[in-house]
């Protein structure tokens, strides 16, 4: 038993050694015909790895059918190389000389990601019999000369330097020589063309200096370098090692991609379209140049990214070229054929590196095509650069430059020959005025008839001054009479030309149509001192004229101005019931009626929303003044008809008679008239009161209320209420609109409609709004934390005061949103059309800034004003709120048509629709049927307290601040 174990211990290692040493089977031999010029041995090769420093293989059976074993050792101990084994059979009667060729680099099947960039392939080849293969000195391939004896079968074992052998050929020596000679001639031609093209574009860049030429020249030099590296010319010129070509090849591919980006950016002049284009191109180029540096450390990674980038550039560039070509960019149109060929080249290159195209001529053809593409690019930029001639890019004189500038500016030339007294102007001005050709040419005095009467003296004085002083510049604005009776404003800018004798011989300059600028300036001046709606003077011009009247009263006897204040009773309630559009119509009607009752010497102004004031100087007697006030009261009490509906009015009138002792200043006189007007509003209004000094003590209660309002926020007397906004699709609460209520400790509940006007007068609107923003954002954060829905629940805060349309509102809102962390656009600001239209340009800028900080925007009372449709596209609102006047069932027969039109219009602009005033189930059903998303009103309940709102959304816990 012990003997058996000893024998087993001795036999097992020997069996294991023999099992490792014996190959899997004999190699299949490849028959070599005598007339075969080249044989692709790649698929006949057997690969071996992990064999250590030696390999044992079984040879292919010889002519006697015997299979032998050979053992081959690596050249360097511990190298652990990869091995290949193949066998060749010469069954002819002649001895054969053949070449084993393993190319260092083949673009075919090289791959895109971690591509094979080439290297020395075969270190040594060992033959099983006969003459040992002899290595030939070749730069771009490993070549071994071998001899096959007649009737012999030889097995060859090759030690590899790389784990992968892309291709192995057996060549007839003369055929291989002819092939390399022909390919060398082709390579020389391609390199010569590429070099001449790069040199030519460089010379053109030096001559022309335009940015497009260095970009094209850089692309041409990059292509030349890539061709030289791929054709093996680079290593011959610079004496680099064969394995260093991998680094040069990867670097050349990254530089090629970078220069293609530079060319596309420069040729299409992308910097003029958007600054983002410059930034993107710059980042892309820097990234590619960084890849060129990475090629030193990891050439395959750099090459793979460069190849992907090159394909991306071709695709993105094609989309960009087509887009610009369809938008009329001439350069893009000219580049389409060349870029189409580039797309074809990239596609062919992709098929080649992936192995779909497996042909030895693929690599030379691709490089030749690349040079052809650069040549076409050169022709394209030359055509683009020289198509417009030398004027566009060449050197021009100062006179030519000024002439081109005048033509480009489309300005009218004015030339007065003083000696001949003849004016020449461009024909454009005569066409604009509707005059015949030459109507404005002739003596300078002939312009007097077409000048506005008020501008004639200035015109004469200006020309006379220039001639007299013989220096200076002319900057004169005047109006010219058109054939249809209209006047156009023109600005003359000219300078005199002095002759040798020191006298003015010419006056040369330009005429510019500034009619639009003048009209805009007049509108701005008018709007600054007049009300936008009624066109009446506003508070500023009212005070200016009252100052003048009080000054005259001090110097002239019998000149006693009187201030009359007229306020429409319950106007806010009327406005809410009939809509803002009807409210504006009422104000216009009141303004027209008041204007017919006063004399031209009197001044009528709109002081605030529904408050009008009159400076009465046409009447001095108290009785006459009171009679006029009574006529005003009776005239304004006549109902106003709007949309087949009569709206009854009543007004309260306060009169402040001239009395320097009680109201010597303009503010005092207007304030006393307002005190009398508020006194007339008691007991329902519709009365006239003349100011008495005792009224001031009665108004002290109002002042006390103002003082208490200032402390109400600190005392926590201002309560925030939430009106539910319901999603009509599923009747769920989508959000809330905020309302304010003052819980006065002495008076009790005061609605916001009663104390917000007081806050506006005292400047507390900003503090109240900041209070609402902070509380509403805190509550919204708690709701969204407790109720996770999509879209998230929202809250709407109304911005109703012009004091709030300020830049600080953006900062306040940004700070509030940053602390609350609510969902974007779920915190909504609601502005009325009237407020937004008081200064549309400023409103657009402010609303865009509010939207940028994350606020949602809603347009209130939509459809009730005059300009919502015109400005709807400019204002960045997310939703609109339909005024309650359109929702009410008694709104008229066209109400349903109007509702559908408003909802359809809002949806076309990508906005949601909220309807206010839904008071019944029928209202809700109708709004849902026409596509309205949200609704609010008494149909869904009264405004809720903070705690009730929390309970409704399931957030009963106190929110964190």
Automatic annotation (TrEMBL):
InterPro entries: Biofilm_reg_signaling (IPR052155), EAL_dom (IPR001633), EAL_sf (IPR035919), GGDEF_dom (IPR000160), Nucleotide_cyclase (IPR029787), PAC (IPR001610), PAS (IPR000014), PAS-assoc_C (IPR000700). Keywords: Membrane, Transmembrane, Transmembrane helix. Residues 559-693 form the GGDEF domain. The lineage of its organism: Bacteria, Pseudomonadati, Pseudomonadota, Alphaproteobacteria, Hyphomicrobiales. This is PAS domain S-box-containing protein/diguanylate cyclase (GGDEF) domain-containing protein. Residues 702-957 form the EAL domain. Residues 474-526 form the PAC domain. PROSITE patterns: EAL, GGDEF, PAC, PAS. Coiled coil: none annotated. Residues 398-470 form the PAS domain. NCBIfam families: GGDEF, sensory_box. The chain crosses the membrane at residues 184-206, 213-235, 247-268, 280-299, 305-325, 332-353, 365-392.
């Amino acid at each position: 038993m012990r003997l058996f174990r000893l024998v087993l211990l001795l036999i097992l290692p020997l069996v294991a050694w023999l099992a490792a040493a014996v190959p899997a089977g004999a190699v299949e031999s490849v028959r070599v015909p005598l007339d075969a010029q080249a044989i692709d041995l790649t698929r006949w090769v057997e690969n071996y790895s992990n064999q250590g420093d030696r390999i044992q293989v079984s040879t292919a059976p010889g002519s006697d059918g015997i299979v032998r074993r050979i053992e081959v050792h690596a050249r360097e101990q511990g190298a652990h190389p990869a091995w290949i084994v193949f066998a060749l059979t010469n069954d002819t009667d002649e001895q054969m000389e053949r070449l084993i060729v393993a190319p260092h680099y083949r673009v075919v099947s090289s791959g895109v990601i971690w591509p094979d960039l080439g290297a020395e392939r075969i270190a040594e080849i060992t033959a099983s019999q006969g003459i040992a293969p002899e290595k030939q000195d070749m730069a771009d391939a490993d070549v071994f000369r071998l001899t096959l004896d007649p009737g012999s079968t030889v097995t060859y074992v090759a030690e590899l330097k790389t784990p992968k052998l892309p291709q192995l050929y057996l060549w007839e020596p003369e055929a291989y020589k002819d092939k390399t000679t022909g390919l060398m001639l082709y390579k020389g031609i391609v390199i010569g063309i590429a070099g001449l093209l790069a040199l030519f574009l460089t010379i053109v860049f030096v001559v022309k200096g335009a940015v497009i030429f260095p970009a094209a020249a850089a692309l041409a030099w990059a292509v030349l370098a890539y061709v030289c590296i791929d054709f093996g010319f680079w290593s011959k010129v610079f004496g680099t090692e064969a394995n260093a070509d991998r680094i040069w090849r990867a670097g050349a591919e990254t530089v090629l991609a970078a220069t293609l980006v530079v060319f596309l950016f420069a040729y299409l002049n992308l910097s003029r379209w958007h600054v983002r284009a410059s930034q993107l191109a710059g980042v892309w180029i820097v990234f590619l140049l960084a890849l060129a540096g990475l090629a030193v450390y990891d050439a395959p990674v750099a090459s793979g990214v460069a190849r992907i980038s090159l394909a991306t550039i071709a695709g993105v560039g094609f989309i960009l070229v087509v887009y610009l070509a369809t938008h009329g960019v001439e350069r893009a149109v000219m580049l389409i054929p060349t870029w189409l060929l580039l797309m074809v080249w990239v596609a062919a290159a992709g098929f080649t590196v992936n192995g779909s195209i497996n042909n030895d001529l693929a690599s030379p053809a691709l490089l030749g095509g690349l040079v052809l593409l650069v040549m076409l690019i050169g022709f394209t930029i030359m055509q683009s650069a020289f198509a417009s001639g030398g004027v566009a890019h060449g050197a021009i004189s100062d006179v030519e430059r000024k002439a081109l500038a005048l033509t480009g500016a489309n300005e009218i030339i004015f030339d007065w020959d003083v000696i001949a007294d003849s004016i020449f102007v461009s024909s454009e001005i005569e066409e604009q005025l509707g005059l015949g050709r030459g109507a404005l040419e002739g003596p300078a005095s002939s312009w007097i008839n077409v000048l506005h009467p008020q501008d004639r003296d200035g015109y004469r004085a200006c020309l006379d001054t220039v001639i007299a002083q013989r220096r200076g510049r002319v900057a004169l604005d005047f109006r010219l009479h058109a054939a249809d009776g209209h006047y156009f404003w023109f600005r003359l800018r000219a300078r005199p030309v002095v002759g040798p004798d020191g006298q003015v011989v010419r006056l040369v300059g330009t005429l510019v149509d500034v009619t639009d600028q003048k009209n805009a300036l007049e509108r701005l001046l008018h709007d600054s001192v007049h009300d936008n709606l009624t066109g009446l003077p506003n508070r500023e011009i009212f005070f200016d004229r009252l100052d003048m009247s009080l000054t005259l009263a001090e110097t002239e006897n019998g000149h006693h101005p009187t201030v009359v204040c007229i306020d429409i009773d319950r106007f806010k309630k009327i406005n809410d019931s009939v809509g803002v559009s009807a409210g504006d119509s009422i104000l216009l009607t009141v303004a027209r009626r008041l204007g017919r009752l006063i004399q031209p010497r009197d001044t009528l102004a709109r002081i605030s929303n529904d408050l009008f004031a009159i400076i009465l100087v046409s009447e001095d007697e108290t009785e006459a003044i009171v009679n006029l006030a009574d006529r005003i009261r009776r005239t304004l009490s006549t109902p106003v008809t709007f949309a087949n509906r009569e709206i009854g009015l009543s007004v309260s009138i306060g009169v402040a008679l001239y009395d320097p002792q009680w109201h010597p200043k303009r503010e005092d006189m207007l304030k006393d008239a307002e005190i009398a007007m508020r006194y007339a509003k008691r007991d329902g209004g519709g009365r006239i009161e003349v100011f008495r000094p005792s009224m001031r003590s009665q108004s002290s209660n109002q002042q006390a209320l103002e003082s208490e309002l200032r402390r109400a926020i600190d005392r926590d007397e201002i309560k925030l209420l939430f009106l539910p906004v319901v999603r009509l699709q599923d009747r769920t609460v989508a959000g809330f609109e905020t309302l304010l209520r003052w819980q006065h400790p002495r008076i009790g509940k005061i609605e916001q409609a009663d104390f917000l006007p007081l806050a506006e007068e005292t400047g507390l609107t900003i503090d109240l709004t900041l209070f609402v923003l902070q509380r509403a954002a805190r509550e919204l954060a708690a709701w969204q934390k407790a109720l996770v829905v999509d879209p998230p629940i929202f809250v709407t805060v109304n911005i109703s005061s012009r004091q709030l349309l300020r830049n600080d509102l953006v900062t306040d809102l940004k700070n509030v949103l940053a602390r609350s962390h609510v969902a974007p656009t779920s915190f909504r600001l609601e502005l009325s059309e009237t407020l937004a239209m008081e200064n549309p340009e400023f409103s657009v800028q402010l609303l865009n800034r509010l939207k940028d900080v994350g606020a949602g925007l809603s347009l209130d009372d939509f459809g009730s004003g005059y300009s919502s449709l015109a400005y709807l596209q400019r204002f960045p609102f997310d939703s609109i709120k339909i005024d309650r006047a359109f929702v009410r069932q008694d709104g008229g027969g066209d109400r349903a048509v109007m509702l559908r039109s408003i909802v359809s219009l809002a949806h076309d602009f990508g906005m949601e629709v909220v309807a206010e005033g839904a008071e019944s189930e029928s209202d809700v059903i109708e709004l849902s049927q026409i596509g309205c998303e949200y609704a609010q009103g008494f149909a869904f309940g009264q405004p809720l307290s903070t705690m009730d709102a929390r309970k409704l959304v399931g957030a009963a816990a106190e929110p964190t601040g």
